[in-house]
Amino acid sequence: MIAFLVIVYVAVVLVLFKVLRIKPTAYLIASMIVVGVFMIGGVVVVWTQAAPITDKMVTSQYVVQLVPYVKGQVKTIHAQANQPLKKGDLLLEIDPAPYEYTVRQVEAQLATAKANVKQAEAAVATANAAVPNAQANLEKAKAADELAKTQEQIALNIQRADKAAISQLNVAKATQERQEADAAVQQANAGVAQAQASAQQAAAALQVTQSNVPAVEAQLDDARFNLAQCKMLAPGEGYVVNWQVQIGTMLVPAPLAAAGTFVNVSDTAVAAVFPQNFLSNVEPGNDVEMVLNPYPGRLFLGKVDYVIPASGGGQFTTSGTIPNAARIGSDGLYAVRINFTDNAVARKLSLGSGGSATIYTNKGKATHVISKVAIRMKKWLLYVMPSVDKPSS
């Protein structure tokens, strides 16, 4: 459109001065220049606000550092670098032998703990059964004691009434029987107390053994979890890059010793950078057209997800040094996250691909044709003029 306006402007100038042979004056020439500037410049201003275009963009995907949860030597490698994988596919196996030993050991401890619970339950049942027996013996002893006391009292009463009616020996015998009955009652009381104490001790021992079982079960769950972590699985749909492992490689659960990097292609997006004043009309959901450097001749469609309302130039690192005012500034750029319309196409794109993108806002739709023509020219020019990102100064 700009080229068309330039052509129209030049045609008007030629008609005025060549065909109509209007005498050029300083006032007329100045007027024509002002008209040309406003006509073309106004379109450019509306165009940049309505359909901004940029060459600073890159495809982005989430990456995951493949760090094992457990340490050990690599036993088997299943995944190959740069080969597509699905979520849950097996990447590699760490030698599980040490963790299998731990699982078996804790399983044996759990079996012992459960056996101890059963023994404690049997001891509680035996101790509880002894309490009623002791109480029954106590009741018998009390009854015998009461009988002995009654016989003693009868003997004493007879002796007081008539000393010749009963012998002193019989009275002494009745007294001795009563004393023996009293001792039996005391012994029965001690037996009841001992049975109750044994029952309490057995109940306490049962609680201790029962409390050991959940702790051992937790240890077993942990051991089984560690055993399962010997198999490293793909965290999503994607592929592995920077695959650093071989059979026999020692892996440790440390971020600085990753086995490789997993690129997750299930959420492929574009980060495009625009001047801040070009984004005043950009809204989530605006249509986007893109060309990517590795794919000349192809046009990709997308939607604006959101404008990232932050810039690293406004972030200051906490330190004891006062920020240098001369170094404070901004490059005047904001990033826009763009989602591809076709997720199936997005999954096949390479990470870090550069290219160009244009956003079509809801304003100045007549100027959208300028960006549509420009983006399609870039699409075909990639065949003969590869785009190379220039390092920032």
Mind sketching the topology for me?
Layout lengths: L1 H18 L6 H25 L2 E2 L2 E9 L6 E6 L12 E5 L2 H65 L6 H61 L2 E3 L4 E4 L8 E2 L9 E15 L11 E6 L7 E9 L24 E8 L2 H5 L7 E6 L7 H14 L12
Antiparallel strand pairs: 1-12, 2-8, 3-4, 3-7, 4-5, 6-8, 8-11, 9-10, 9-12, 10-11
Helix pairs in contact: 1-2, 3-4
Can you give a write-up of this model?
The protein is an alpha+beta fold and 393 residues long. The protein is 48% helix and 19% strand. The chain is elongated and about 170 Å long. It starts with a helix and ends in a 12-residue tail after the last helix. This is Multidrug resistance efflux pump. Residues 64-250 form the Multidrug resistance protein MdtA-like barrel-sandwich hybrid domain. Residues 103-191 form a coiled coil.
Keywords, separated by commas or semicolons:
about 400 residues, alpha+beta, Elongation Factor Tu (Ef-tu), domain 3, OB fold (Dihydrolipoamide Acetyltransferase, E2P), four-stranded antiparallel beta sheet, elongated
Short description:
The chain is of the alpha+beta class and 393 residues long.
